[in-house]
Amino acid sequence: MESCRLHLRALLLLVAFLYPAFVQSLIRHYKFSVVFKNTTKLCSSKPTITVNGKFPGPTLYAREDDTVIVRVINHVNHNLTIHWHGVRQLGTAWADGPAYITQCPIQPGQNFIYNFTLTGQRGTLLWHAHTSWLRATLHGAIVILPKRGTPYPFPTPDEEKTVILAEWWKSDVEAVVNQSIKSGLPPNVSDAHTINGHAGSVPGCSSQGGYTLHVESGKTYLLRIINAALNDDLFFKIAGHNLTVVEVDASYTKPFQTNTIFISPGQTTNAILTANRGIGKYLIAASPFMDAPVGFDNLTSIASLRYKGTPANPKAFLTSIPPQNATPVTNTFMDSLRSLNSKQYPANVPLTIDHSLFFTIAVGVNPCATCVNGSKLVAAFNNVSFVMPTIALLQAYYYNTKGVFTLDFPANPPIPFNYTGNSTANMQTTNGTRLYRLGYNSTVQIVLQGTAVIAPESHPTHLHGFNFFVVGKGIGNFDPKKDPKTFNLVDPVERNTISVPTGGWTAIRFRADNPGIWFLHCHLEVHTTWGLKMPFLVENGKGPNETLRPPPADLPTC
Length: 558
Known about the structure:
With 558 residues, the protein is mainly beta.
């Protein structure tokens, strides 16, 4: 028996020596019970859809290359799915989560196991529901630590804190969006913003306390900041303190200091906070950014940073919040972002392009006989408002089910016009479940062009299944001859969600090395609801590692 133990130990040591990554990688199991929880905020209560009774939901902790297995059990009366926002899902397209794109929803009383590996990823991401507007309260953090023995490419902080920004409605959020769809009008904006689930004091309700970030003098803290809001770009500031940005969307950046973080829905930012001020209480503000003439929640959420040793009821150090239309602040922040582009973490920007795509982003108006004004608001890429299918696109593709989608999404707008000028463009869109086909490992450039149709607006745009490099941006109409000369092809920031500036454009590049069907959509939920979304079909390559795997046995049915 002792001899067997010695042989086993020797074998394990040999495996650890020859395959250290195998030993480092673990399988992490989580259980998500989706349940109603009666919640009181803003001096009113309502049943809230939560994971495990928590808002925000539980944090997933893992390390790079770990496998994560999450059993999601639906105990509420809504269909739902969970999306692991920013997870590449290499080889696991069935686990991506958008309803009717990669899977049918998990129906009430049913469950589904999401199984995916965090291949080559480390940093902060988020998970959230991807059905209707359920992500208002169904969301949480994904914290991916580096492999054991691999340090951060910046000084190791003393502690880490997760900060989740979100929105809160007093009303049932599903009732809000359903009423908007029925009327054809914009939905009611949220009643408050929250910081780690706390709204703080708001007009008409000053009794509820805000979130407190506890720190000790001389220590450093890695803040993992997540914007889980449905519809609002946000500024984040801490009175009297600068922050050093070191990562966005789980990709390391060249460090830079700022006193204001700009963060759009679906984005994450990791920043180092140094507790180097005097003992006391310092206010934290999450305030909205909006530089377009549209309705939004204009309330600022207030939390506090409190040093150890601060006496009871201290006077708070205040912070000035940026103007709500502080476009220069957003530009300064976004222009400061650069990939680390080190030997260990290179920026592998595609230098040659197989597919050069030009997508206009616009809000429109379509006829609607049952709506209040006989019309309804819609949104579209290249004048195509996406129509959700009744079965999942990935299933239809895998099983070769006919009549579910077409592969004719336009690479360019059907009719060119003065996109950001005072144009007389037709405000009506076409409707369709139209996909764009990409060959395996092909390189793609997309110019996302904002328009002034109805109203110009910032559009945070998210691509599932890939990271991309933000090689350029500008105001006005993209010039295909002049603007590419200004592209940064050396160290552009790498992201999964990017804000297209109001009345401007953004150019991104990526390599289509992940077979499956992958969603591109505005991460303002109001625009997604109106149809501002489209899928890419990435074809199989050669061999099993470049081929879409069969679906899991418990994949939900429609």
